[in-house]
Amino acid sequence: MSVLIAVDKFKGSLTGVELSDAIATGMRRALGEGFTPRICPIADGGDGTVDAALASGFDEVQTQVTGPAGQPVTVRYAFDRAAATAVIEVAEACGIRLLGADLDVLGATTFGVGELILHAVERGVSTIVIGLGGSATTDAGAGMLSALGVRFEDAPNPAEVHGGGGLRGVTGVDLSSLDPRLAGVDFVMASDVTNPLTGENGAAAVYGPQKGATLEQVKELDALLGLAAGFIEQALDVVLGTYREAPGAGAAGGLGFACLSVLGARMRPGVDVAFELTGFNDALDGADFIITGEGKFDTQTLQGKGPAGVAQAGKRVGARVVAICGGSELEEDAWRAAGFDGVYSVLGTGVSLEESLANPRPHVEKIAEQMARDFLI
Fold first, then answer.
1. C-alpha span between 270 and 189 (Å, rounded)
2. Contact 49, 274 (CB under 8 A)
3. With 90 as the cut, is the pLDDT of residue 157 above it?
4. Which of 14, 28, 265, 340 is the most exposed place for a label (fewest CB within 10 A)?
5. Which InterPro entries did the record assign (predicted)?
6. Res 44 pLDDT > 90
């Protein structure tokens, strides 16, 4: 029987590589030391996509960019020289985790994302995959565009806009100084967010409160994003609303809008992009039994997350699919309907949440051993 381990991470405690190793170790206790599964860490296009690309053979590149509060931050991205491809995550440069409790939805900037893109461009890439998700920002990508050469006329700082609040007073947008090297780059936007930029389902209204926005700030940001979008669409000579109302424009506080409009990005489901980057589709070939999983199994897992994609792919090739997770909130009928043949939870063994977060590996090994006995012996 051909066994494939294709797991995401236990966020904050085990990377995909570490989780894979723990599962394989536990399974060997039941199946013998000669057990050799195929291992392919996966992601869903968001946080963890760079790690998954690195595990699949990409090289790690580090540089320093401007963080969401204007502070210098060291970021990583994945680079494949042969394929001239870079994989970046916006959360590295403007992630909400970089601010802690000091949220500033009006001032948080995406400027560092633009700097990160330029660093990859200088390495000669022809494709940049941008994983959207986990941002602290709501600025329609204005900070990123500033770093790439765009000027926002009559803004407090026309050449360096920081945050949605930095769009106050804008009277136009000049795209003529956009770095010309970007025209030769194929941008792929990995995202499952379908929200438009503005309105009741837009970036500010839906995601602003999660980033610390008050009701009044949500209203102001929605207006500012709409203002900036109008000027950008005008500069691009397209019908107003073409990009503002496009599915995904509201991703990452409106970074989706900037990517779709100015960078000409193609939007693809995060799981599809991540599976191609990590080689999962090739690893799937011939697999009879697949182990997947992530830290928390809940309704979001079934809405485009990596494990759900693994289950669907496994069923297409006739493989049995079992998940190992830190904790599960799903009822059995829900995970069976999603294509899973079993779900094993660390918390389901009586381990406390604190213990599972602090030292999950031995518990993962234990349930992996039990899973192997249940399904493979």
1. 8
2. yes
3. no
4. 28
5. Glyc_kinase_flavodox-like_fold (IPR018193), Glycerate_kinase (IPR004381), Glycerate_kinase_RE-like (IPR018197), Glycerate_kinase_sf (IPR036129)
6. no
Reduced 3-state DSSP string for 133-173: CCECCCCCCHHHHHHCCCEEECCCCCCCCCCHHHHCCCCEE
User: How many Å apart are CA 308 and CA 44, to the nearest integer?
Assistant: 10
Tens of pLDDT, residues 103-156: 999 999 999 999 999 999 999 999 999 999 889 999 999 999 999 999 999 998
Beta-carbon-side half-sphere exposure of residue 208 (alpha carbons within 13 Å): 31
Q: Are the beta carbons of 293 and 327 closer than 8 angstroms?
A: no
CA distance linking residue 300 with residue 297, whole number of Å: 8
> In this structure, which topology does domain 49-270 adopt according to CATH?
Glycerate kinase, domain 2 (3.90.1510)
pLDDT digits (tens, 9 = 90+) for 161-195: 999 999 999 999 999 999 999 999 999 999 989 99
CATH 3.90.1510.10 positions along the chain are 49-270
Q: What is the pLDDT of residues 69-95, one digit of tens each?
A: 999 999 999 999 999 999 999 999 999
Which of 198, 53, 212 minimizes the C-alpha distance to 135?
A: 212
- Give the up-direction half-sphere exposure of residue 340: CA atoms within 13 A in the CB hemisphere: 26
Burial class of residue 122 in the structure, from the number of CB atoms within 10 Å of its CB (0-12 exposed, 13-18 middle, 19+ buried): exposed
Q: What's the CATH fold of domain 3-40+286-376? A: Rossmann fold (3.40.50)
Identity of residue 280:
F
Tell me the CA distances in angstroms from 130 to 78, 114, 240, one per residue in order. 11, 11, 25
In this prediction, residue 1 has a pLDDT band, given cuts at 50, 70 and 90, of confident
